[in-house]
Amino acid sequence: MKPLHADPTRRLALQALAALVGGSALPAAFAAPDYPSRPIRVVVPFAPGGTVDVVARMLTPAWGELLGQPIVVDNRSGAGGMTGADNVAKSPPDGYTLLAFHVGLTYGSALFKKLPYDVKRDFQPVGLLGATPSILVVNNKSPVRSVGELLALAKKDPGALNYASAGIGASSHLAVELLQVVTGARFTHVPFRGGAPAVTATMGGDTQMMVETSASVLPHIKAGKLRALAVTGESRLADLPEVPTMKEAGVADYVYTTWFGLWAPAATPAAIVQKLHQATQAALDKPATRQGLARAGVEVRHASTAEFEKLVHADVDKWSQIIKSAGIEPE
């Protein structure tokens, strides 16, 4: 017999029932009248300083105020986010251990042969947090000054240029894989244990380029340590009005944005999920949160738990097809 959480439809039905009947017919844990009664741990599966870490820490003060308990960010990097995600998947479904991740969570099943969790089965989506384009950057001392020059070098000597990423399966990994598929250029992947060390390597010249979320690289671009060649979204960034989009730079079929979200372990009671969702929506609407995320290049996005779950499941399927089409073999 399958465990209850293995059937998403049945899980959602049970959660809806729990929300309707509250504490009158179910244990107090399901009605969650006293939740939260102790600090909540938010696992960020990347090193401090990366975009997911920035987003989570921007929300922490508002979350703590709204929920009435301290929110502790726990950075557990490794394996492209898989280490931290697995920790949450195997945690008790009581609302005290949550996962902050980005669209990269949906890549795992196509990238790893032995993924220790199932994204559709083992996590309960809580809420969408925001979205941001990425920026194609090189070291500021690099002779490359345009996307065209970069692609010409990569095609002249395939694999000679190294690109940094936050790890296998990270957003910064798949962004370049997609670029290779679209352009035919070839780069060599150098994965790190998080976005911050990957950015540091690019600034130091250990790697030649990367495609990283704007929140992680904007400060270094403004400090003159990185050179922005293009923005991966549909439009230019207000903070970098002189930097073209990839389409404007000549790569017509390339658009890449990263969304961020919050998850709980599967089978977390619906009342707890709803309370977390409501707190998250309220936190995102606070002016201080919006302004802080905007400074980091992240645009606030709202979605119901059902809408967010639909997005997650659709992206699992979409990226599985893209990764397979790119010829990327699961590791």
TrEMBL record:
Keyword terms: Receptor, Signal
UniProt-listed Gene3D superfamilies: Bordetella uptake gene, domain 1, Periplasmic binding protein-like II
Top-level taxon in the UniProt lineage: Bacteria
The UniProt record lists the keyword Cell membrane: no
Signal peptide: 1-31
Protein family membership: Belongs to the UPF0065 (bug) family.
PANTHER family for the chain: BLR1237 PROTEIN, TRICARBOXYLATE-BINDING PROTEIN
The protein's name: Tripartite-type tricarboxylate transporter receptor subunit TctC
